[in-house]
Amino acid sequence: MRRIKVYDTxxxxxxxxxxxxxxxxxxxxxxxxxxxxGMDFIEGGWPGSSPRDDSFFSEAASLELENSSxxxxxxxxxxxxxxxxxxxxxxxxxxxAEWCCIFGKTWDLHIREALKISPEDNLSIIENSIRFLRDSxxxxxxxxxxxxxxYRSDPDLTxxxxxxxxxxxxxxxxxxxxxxxxLPGYVYESVKEISGKVSVPLGIHCHNxxxxxxxxxxxxAEAGCGMVQGTVNGIGERCGNTNLCTLLPNLSIxxxxxxxxxDIRAVTELSKYAGEIANTVPDPNMPxxxxxxxxxxxxxHVSAIARNPSTYEHVPPESVGNARRILVSDMAGRASxxxxxxxxxxDSGGDKDIADTIKNLESEGYTFxxxxxxxxLLVRRMRKEIEPVFGxxxxxVYTDSSGENGTVSxxxxxxxxxxxxxxxxxxxGNGPVNALDNALRKGLKCFFPExxxxxxxxxxxxxxxxxxxxxxxxxxxxxxxxxxxxxxTVGVSVNIIEASVNALKDSLEYALIRQxxxxxxxxxxxxxxxxxxxxxxxxxxxxxxxxx
Length: 548
Fold this sequence. Notes:
Double Stranded RNA Binding Domain; eight-stranded parallel barrel; alpha/beta; disordered C terminus; TIM Barrel; single chain
């Protein structure tokens, strides 16, 4: 089993992605997470390029990393400037990082037209810069920028640049597909050829402009590269970098490479964590770690999965820390329903009636693929396992645009518990749905103070029949959380307010039923807590759950 070193550049190359900006605190938190994950190298940024990176390296000096080596990134010195007088190299030499990774030109196009210098001068820049950092006590890697374009254009000149870095003392030569335009076959052959011309170990750094960064990196590893570089979730400039969340499972599970201390079962958690820090919406279609990576919808597929997961899954979801999802839709057969009920820990009896009901509701515009909470409530209601926790007697919404504060909304609502107690409350909001949400929670908190921890995290509206204009029906999906778990509910109506109320009601009812373990009778419940027919009642904060 061959050892492959993993180099993460999320904090530097990933931060060049449009819309992403890491604070110093974000970068420190990510370093700790990446170190715990087992990365060999973590590129922290470019000292001297910004006050933020300077602050990061200043604070990073106190980090006690267990698995990772911190790397500072920079460039070779400017032409005409001695290394000891170059501000970029001075910042690198004085920072806390043990390793420095500097890039230099290896493509004749850049040497002659961008730098406007001779190939000989370019070689001097590379050698002198690396020697300076080595003499200052740093360990050095050399990023051969545009290597594959240069090797295609003038292989001898590009090879000379690489050998210059080796001669100066670089411990790694990283071959860069900087424009992201190379194909995997060409990368494989180029790595094979250049590995016979240098003795230091090779690394690979690919961009994703042709959607081939992972494929090219795998080809380079197969050809002999001992280091792979990339970013978590593939973020980066333009189309991004090699996605480590896809690359690492392929290297470990499919190719049998040794990734050191990395536990590939933690890759899904890492993906989610980095996404939260970057404040990016997770890509549900991402291989291995996406929410749809192991989602099954078609009844035939689900039936086969229930017998043998390998029929439609290339790896077990738990091998990468993900989980199988069974999607309930109008395409679902009895096998899909049965498997979904099994996932929810429920008996699969009567699944034909449930499947028929699902198909009918989805023909009206409902969707339960992403609304597990509404699906579970539907099943338990059909089986008469639960009774409503509360009732909504009526509501009104007012929207006023005449005030000094612009358009504002106010909602009033009447809610009852099952003893008949009523709360009539009102609340403002920045829109009619927000006002209703506030009013509903305000009223219910009188009966159920535990709802204070529940909040809405996402609200989506989908028009069902676009050709019907504003008179069409809508589907509302609401995602809620209690700080520990998330759940999604759905509501459908020709009236967006009614659809929203239905989804909100399901969300809060699910929170209560879930919190009270679906009303299952507790050991402390006395024999007097019955209705005279052998059916138990759970009394708390005015909540009644009929137990069947």
